[in-house]
Amino acid sequence: MKIATTPWDWTGLHDVQALCAQAELAESLGLHSFWLPESHFAGQRSIPSPLTLLAAVAARTRRIGLGCTSYLLPIRHPLQAAEEVAVLDQLSGGRLILGLGRGLQKEMFSAFDVASKDKRSLFAANLAQMRRAWRGESVLHGASDATDAGHPERVAMLSPLPVQRPEPELWVAAFGPLALQQVAQLGLPYLASPMETITALERNYAHHREQAAQAGQTLPQVVPIMRTVYVADSAAQVAAARQSVQAELRGRGLDADAVDDSAIIGEPDAVRERLQEYVARLGMTHLIVRAGIAGIDAQQQVSSLRAVARMRCTV
């Protein structure tokens, strides 16, 4: 199983040196990849341009993968997005994992002058155009409508192309049956929500597989799951982490008593057993640790990540 992480110190997220230092440490721990979400109009937690931040991380690291959990296609021009992705894949030497998303916030769609009801159709159309561009096909509309018989066909190709061919590794964040159906019909891996329970994820992955089979798609053997994970030898630290996550769940209007169904918190043996359960029940191949639990200091967060990293060969 491959283990990845988000930043654990979100207070300095817009301090590029502090962000890159976290990625360097994650790389030194042997973690698979370092992940950033995309968010707009969220105050200090906004990350409107995750690929820009990942470009800075790429310059300071050598091996660790660079992941974006939800690069929002409906609010972007597909060719400009394809170019930005290709540049980052080149800059990082082919280390990009592009998690794609549609977006949820009505305010965001309104601000970008996009009808939220069109998000799925825009997602599909934009992704199709991006994939054609990454394959090196002409990106011009009506490329063959020459003005006269002697005029050569107009061709414009994306440059540079991604290092990864024919395209960067693509995962899709999805929430709800229609979104899962769309991901399955594309034949792409589904990146699970960090807030849904393990029982809900079982249903989601079953639906994803069924819809892919109906569409005649063979899914890659990739099952990525993001989860809040915290490991500590101290019972007091474990209790503090649980209380913090329960408070977050309550703040989101979710069942705080179901913390163990949406987070993995405990002493090392308990966490290892829980990870083994996720592998057995869901076929999890990649765990993205959703780090940065409120009230847990950076040193304790790093200690937890070290412990989780040591488990990757025993799960």
- Find the structural class using helix and strand composition: alpha/beta
Unreliable stretches (pLDDT < 50, length at least 5) are 144-148
| Rough outline | globular
Second-tier CATH architecture: Alpha-Beta Barrel
CATH secondary-structure class:
Alpha Beta
The CATH topology annotation reads as: TIM Barrel
Q: Radius of gyration in whole Å, from Cα? A: 20 Å
Total strands: 9
Instruction: Output the helix-strand order.
Output: EHEHEHEHHEHEHEHHEHEH
- Enumerate how many helices there are, as a single number: 11
Average pLDDT score: 91
User: Main beta sheet, described?
Assistant: 5 strands, parallel
> In angstroms, what separates the terminal alpha carbons?
7 Å
Describe the structure.
With 315 residues, the protein is α/β, with parallel strands linked by helices. It has one domain (2-143, 154-229, 266-293): Luciferase-like domain (TIM Barrel, Alpha-Beta Barrel), CATH 3.20.20.30. Helices cover 43% and strands 14% of the residues. The chain is built from 11 helices and 9 strands. The protein has helices at residues 16-28, 50-60, 78-91, 106-111, 119-134, 177-186, 198-214, 235-251, 259-262, 268-282, 298-311; strands at residues 2-5, 33-36, 65-72, 96-101, 169-173, 190-191, 224-231, 263-266, 286-289. The strands form 2 sheets. Strands 2-3-4-5-6 form a 5-stranded parallel sheet. A 4-stranded parallel sheet has the order 1-9-7-8, with helices on both faces. Strand 5, helix 6 (177-186) and strand 6 form a beta-alpha-beta unit. Helix 2 packs parallel to helix 3 (78-91), helix 3 packs across helix 5 and helix 6 crosses helix 7. The longest helix has 17 residues, at 198-214. Mean pLDDT is 91; it is low at 144-148.
